[in-house]
């Protein structure tokens, strides 16, 4: 769907079967736990005791084969003791559990007494002097776990997303999309950057509106960050990209407190390079070829972080609390299209608190609270692009607040050694507050003024002090609840888990209105005034109207929408972790996802509640039986529900343009001497009608889903190295997108004798296949009308990904740690998924793909998040107890370039070049087919970050100083180029075509001081 304005980056059968098993209402979250397991010599009177620093102690029986397993353990550092007749006979200390990664702690007759065993953490597993296994053979998925120690040592941006980029096949989103609180989003395995899920301590914090990231923890409060990149179990869903799972720190029996100050000075930040018109000049250029003087942007950043944690009641009740404040102040000069320099103040307050209560050794309660908000304010000045300096004050910037708060409660009960109940419930409220600082409702927003007639403005664009094109309800908010329950039962070699996973969201006060008098003016120019301006919408040639022969015109644009929306996502699952024999683990799971989206009247406009079975099958083969060589694989299907925002049309909306010629320009930039060229027109037929929810979605709509296949191995090479390889294949089976060729539905209905039907402006369909639509005749009766894919004129929907990953890793040995990985991959087809990065759309109604068949001609090729080669290397070296150096290298090949033009081999034939009124958004370039990548690839993104840490002895190593330099060689590759070849339907060249819209951030320096007690 193309709005009239450019929106910038901004109970089933299974349930019944589980009913008896899940009679106790509780919940279970995204993985927050791990396990310890192993073998012991078989003797009578044996047990194994595991205990951590937070007072948890569990005694586990050893079975007749000498096996034991302690599952659902909170992450942390443990001691493991082999008991015989009540006495310790062997012992392991400092066994560090990483989230979701089981640790094999086995004992043998030859093992020395407890005092001789001290453990050292090596890359996600725990080893001792007795060589505990270096490879986890207890999991079948693909994940990267980053500990708080690694986060503190590596030179990384101060965000969860920056840490997630360490994962193989993870790259910055191609369109430059950011989360609601400003962090750049990440694409995993070729998927759209909005197809990920975020969790904090098991609670789903994903943005419910557009899936733009989610609430994250204060950086220093992250105990472990788990990044799933594929193969996860039936317990988890609602992602076909990646998962960012953050485990927050907890209090222990020792008091700890500390803080950190980080500072990024503006004086040590390199200038961003300026960008220039790459395809000619507009009619009224402001400063020649200069488009955006990025070099005049400047800012500094500071981060303040403090924490405290310890026991309220030793061994029983603990708390941990932290607060973080990020302040950023500076200025951003907009492009010549904006004419302004914004001086801003941004603050990102975060806090996190957690209470752990060991009610008994077998019953645990965790309470979590967290908050993240982006608050902005500032002043806007007119900018002189020729002298490169501020002019007069224009307006106050919008005061905004995005983000929100969450809380959750999780209960774990080890009912017996074999039966465990976990329960979690929580709520999150996020806001999208935006209030203009000194908004004048009498001023009309002006855009495109570089295309004003220079004979009427004296060669200098005329505008006014209106800075906002739309206003939103300041009360806009989203309330999400997450309920999960699971029972885990160990039955011989089987560990069976069954549960439910329910997520509900209510979006309230969702109102957006065009600012000022309810419309804004957009100036334009055509060098073909004798041809229809927008033939597909019936807008005629300008020279048929007064003042039209000059080629200058203006459009009056209206966009209004609003209304509450609701979504419900429910799932049931069952899974068996089957230890088939001593070397082979099988993971057999089945999940059923259901999704319902409703409008303001609580009537469903999108429903997928029939069983949507998602099998998950995996294996882990311990080839030699000593955890030194693992072969693993996974096959799974993953369903993704639709976020809230695509439902906006369910409440009706207006998106129209009306074209005029003009003979003058007033002092406030508005056109005068208007001659009407057209009535209000809408490419999507959006004139404010509210569709019946039964008519706006294809019947039996399938949810977006993806199949994934993984096969890999991990092997140790001696005592100090691990290497491996993995093949991943992803195939998107169904896409949901909006389809706006309502006339095709009307015509098909007429061919079946159903006339005068009421039709929606656009429909939600599964593109690339047959769809059945409900249409209503004048009597009120509904009829089903089926259009085959041939009737709709579409190719089959396709997004396929394959990747070969190889890596070599040197686990930390007390001196140094390092890892290098290389990924060769392709992400190709005719659909990027939820987003469309070539036009910097983040999904929903912002996409234009699949709106009309002409848009999809020549659309097959490498998709926006396709990066053929990725090389990553990172690590750190402990030069001495006081000094540590670190580095992080990333080399990523560029994505495809796009040239989007007018339709067909003759772009100047206005009878055919814009058949649906979308302008220069077809996969044709200069009259030639132009699939993605036909005009080449973007350059490689190359970045080296380095760090130095100093922890002096005089402060007992509790005080530390750090210096990090990011993007050492100051590479500033273009990450996105303007793709539209023409400015309008007449074939007038777009001077912005090929101009960089998103650039790699320049070099900057960060100083840090940390104190940990």
Description:
With 1013 residues, this protein is mainly beta. It has 6 helices and 62 strands. It has a 22-stranded antiparallel β-barrel. Strands 27, 28, 31, 32, 35, 41 and 44 form a 7-stranded mixed β-sheet that branches. A 5-stranded mixed β-sheet has the order 10-15-16-13-14. A hairpin with a 3-residue loop joins strand 20 and strand 21 (317-333). The chain is globular. Residues 3-30 and 111-132 have low confidence and may be disordered.
Runs with pLDDT <50, length 5+?
3-30, 111-132
Q: Could you give the distance between the termini?
A: 55 Å
Overall SS class: mainly beta
- Per DSSP, the total helix count is 6
- Largest sheet at a glance? 22 strands, antiparallel, barrel
Number of strands: 62
Outline type: globular
Task: Report the sheet-strand fraction.
Answer: over 45%
Helical content class: under 10%
* Rg, alpha carbons: 30 Å
If you average the pLDDT, what whole number results? 91
